Amino acid sequence: MNFPRYSFFIRRQVQYQKNVEGFLNFINKSPTAFHCVDNVKKTLTSAGFKELRENEQWNVEPLGKYFVIKNGSCLAAFAVGGKYQHGNGFALTATHTDSPHLRVKPVSKRDSCGYLQVNVECYGGGIWHTWFDRDLTLAGRVFFRKENGKIRDHLVHINRPIIRVPTIAIHLKRDTNEKLEINKQDNLQAVLALKTEEELNKSTKKDETCSTEKKSGSEAKKHHSQLLELLASECNCQVDDIINFDLMLADTQPSCVGGLNNEFIYSGRLDNQMSAYCAIEGLVKSLDTLPDETFIRGALLYDNEEIGSESAQGAQSEFTQHILRRITRDEHERSIANSFLVSADMAHAIHPNYSSLHDRDHQPSLSDGGVVLKTNCNNRYATTAFTSTVIKEIARLSNVPIQEFCMRNDMPCGTTVGPILSSRLGMYTVDVGAPQLSMHSIREMTSTQALEHYLVFFQGFYKNFKQVHNSIEH
């Protein structure tokens, strides 16, 4: 006996289940914007899309399927209609890949009261009390130097709980339930391990640690050795080969279906990875009608929406215009893609009478600290892990020391022309400066050593940029 309506219902339920499972699988593998874009890339490649490079010539043709990636965290995908002609226009969707999170600072090494801690920065407008007492891990990307001298990046997602931000016991803060106050600088620092474990490791790895610090300079002094060893293991490289990283704290509890009738999805990052997933799936599944299409279909996945979109990979950048204009014009955008901008503006040296106004791990010195590399994950500075990797390599080849600056979490951060130029031009940008005191006074001060480092740095930039640029693998 035939029950067509019942068969349709069964088929629909099966497809519904596959859709839910597909999304959960996607979002569980996307703890960061970098992982999200990497997973989208795999989906598009499987569907026959071809990756285009910003610094290469393009040949966009009808029925062609393409995608472009920026910074590893922004992606633009396009499918050209079989009947498309120049001037017909585009049918676009736009989403974003980022979500509020805690991010590891450029100098993360902390120890207090017998605990090893990781210094973190707040990205976006998160509800930070929900990050307490969660079993957290680390995810992101690591830049390291290969044996042949090439530089590459590797996605990491530590598959176990290794970090936690514990709450204070109610016995020690009786008004917690009546008045919840979080000092983002002091109360959100994450616990990585017990200090006694580090001491035990030091006894067996003393020689290795000394060797590592000699080879990798100050990197081994900025982060706990155990953390660097874990990252090296994930990347299958040596600790002293690690140059830099973008690391975020991420929940280890997987996204899942819940509710009495399984009617809910419990997950982080629904805003806005759910939109990103659906936009890409919609584009891929519409390909069967592409031969008759007269438009170019596209999906734009931006990064940094949660913090204002003003970045080279944000929606306020020229990235989208570059992509669209290259359908008919190429050379200008190729030049932009191969360019690099150093935004130079003086930096705040540590003040002996106001040292508490600096993050204790980011205190630029006027003596022998070197050129200041400025980082702010809310994009008040344009520096990214990639652009700072480039500048650290240039500084290394130029024999110029680099010191890190990152603002306290509980104080507003100033800005420079860097974010503006980065977003308007769609150009890779880094923010640096020379340390000084009495900024904006009629009589300011710096040091002769700072001047010397600054002069050598700029000369080294012009001489060594080509070598570093050519060493980066794509």
TrEMBL record:
One of its GO terms (cellular component) is cytoplasm. GO terms for molecular function: aminopeptidase activity; metallopeptidase activity; zinc ion binding. Tetrahedron-shaped homododecamer built from six homodimers. Belongs to the peptidase M18 family. It comes from the Eukaryota. SUPFAM superfamilies: Aminopeptidase/glucanase lid domain (SSF101821), Zn-dependent exopeptidases (SSF53187). It catalyses: Release of an N-terminal aspartate or glutamate from a peptide, with a preference for aspartate. Keywords: Aminopeptidase, Hydrolase, Metal-binding, Metalloprotease, Protease, Zinc. This is Aspartyl aminopeptidase. It comes from Adineta steineri. GO terms for biological process: proteolysis. Its cofactor is Zn(2+). Its EC number is 3.4.11.21. The keyword Hydrolase applies. InterPro entries: Peptidase_M18 (IPR001948), Peptidase_M18_dom2 (IPR023358). It holds the Pfam family Peptidase_M18.
